[in-house]
Design goal:
The protein is of the alpha/beta class and 359 residues long. It is built from eleven helices and 19 strands. The protein has helices at residues 42-49, 51-54, 160-163, 166-179, 196-207, 222-228, 241-248, 265-271, 293-298, 311-324, 339-347, and strands at residues 3-6, 15-18, 30-39, 68-73, 79-83, 86-87, 103-104, 110-111, 128-129, 143-147, 151-153, 187-190, 211-216, 232-235, 253-258, 272-280, 302-305, 330-335, 354-358.
Length: 359
């Protein structure tokens, strides 16, 4: 099959396009997915660079990146599907439902998924992401083998291109917004409107009724942020983020969505109100951050890390996106042969919206 893989960690040139890469073989309780689209994420770049491997999470080489997978499978009569990219042991307390009772979600709707809403598989010690830090290959290929339980049927109302944006950036943003109580009248700061998590947060938070403040790196991206629905836009190259936030919300924001890492932690803490919440999900600017400890504890900040989200949350997200008619912006679509150029574009920060591969 056609695939783009790397045989060693390194710069983007280690990505190799192959016409005759070995076809995947479905194991027990697995199915083969014929891929139509795969979204590009920063995790693809970190995996290729070996940053993930440096944390001790080794992956089998050669490896195929790609977590946002949409396609069809003959295992379900050619049904259009997307893939929940999280894999876990399936046996620990976090992977097994703790209750079968009906639960009430923050949205006010009641669900009964036979206890699935109580699963928190992302806390499993063996949790990994297909196409990222796992031995599962990803979506930079014509076909992929995945666990059958990770397959989600796509409603007719959801386009393939839209579905290919949801399983990583949008699910991560949805998890952080849910966990930290985003709702009407909440004030939220998110960095980088043109990034995957930035775009997702703006659209989802606005749909939840929150007021959204975001940042852009230059004037050219101001219009993009406004189009997404951001209420306030700060040009971080010309304006001080904390000063501008305090002009908009003198007491500070309720929630900061920080997917940047080392460069923004101090800013995030300074921009929060007393008792505000800081949600962390990325290290784009570096892994080692400095925290102003006195400000952190005197403001009684609550900080929490987020890793993707659960399969149940992804299903909720799909329903929410359809109900609210949310349209993620597609920056560009590359062929499989263009995977290297797609990653280069993301690394250089030249995108505004989601980058996709089309098979």
């Amino acid at each position: 099959m056609r695939a783009v893989a790397f045989f060693e960690h390194g710069p983007v040139d280690v990505l190799q396009y192959h016409e005759d890469f070995p076809d995947p073989v479905a194991g027990n309780n697995e199915v083969i997915i014929n891929i139509k689209y795969c979204g590009i994420n920063h995790l693809d770049i970190w995996t290729r660079q070996g940053i993930v491997a440096a944390t001790g999470k080794k992956i089998r080489l050669p490896h195929i990146c790609g977590c946002d997978i949409v396609g069809t499978t003959t295992a379900i009569n050619g049904q259009r599907v997307m893939i929940y990219p999280g894999v876990s042991c399936g046996k620990c307390q976090y992977c097994i439902s703790s209750s079968n009772r009906t639960t009430t979600r923050r949205s006010g709707r009641r669900n009964n998924n036979n206890g699935n809403d109580n699963k928190r598989e992302t806390l499993c010690s063996q949790f990994a992401i297909m196409g990222g830090w796992s031995d599962y290959n990803g979506g930079y290929a014509e076909r992929v083998a995945v666990p059958e339980k990770n397959v989600i049927r796509l409603p007719s109302a959801l386009k393939d291109e839209t579905a290919a944006t949801l399983a990583v950036s949008y699910l991560t943003a949805w998890n952080m917004l849910q966990t930290n109580g985003a709702s009407r009248n909440k004030k939220i700061l998110v960095y980088g409107a043109s990034s995957g998590v930035g775009m997702a947060t703006i659209q989802l938070a606005k749909a939840l009724g929150a007021t959204v403040i975001t940042t852009v790196s230059d004037n050219s991206k101001h219009g993009f942020a406004k189009k997404l629905g951001a209420h306030h836009i700060i040009d971080r190259t010309r304006q001080d983020i904390v000063e501008e936030v305090k002009k908009i919300v003198p007491a500070g924001v309720d929630i900061v969505i920080d997917h940047v890492g080392a460069a923004t932690w101090a800013t995030s803490i300074a921009a929060l109100r007393q008792g505000g919440r800081m949600a962390v999900c990325g290290t784009t600017s570096g892994n080692e951050a400095t925290v102003p400890v006195r400000m952190f504890y005197t403001k009684q900040i609550i900080m929490g890390g987020s890793l993707l989200g659960t399969r149940a949350q992804l299903q909720e997200l799909i329903n929410f996106v359809i109900r609210k008619k949310i349209q993620p912006v597609i920056d560009s679509v590359f062929t499989l042969q263009g995977a290297k150029e797609a990653q280069k574009k993301m690394e250089a920060g030249l995108h505004a919206g989601k980058i996709l591969l089309r098979l």
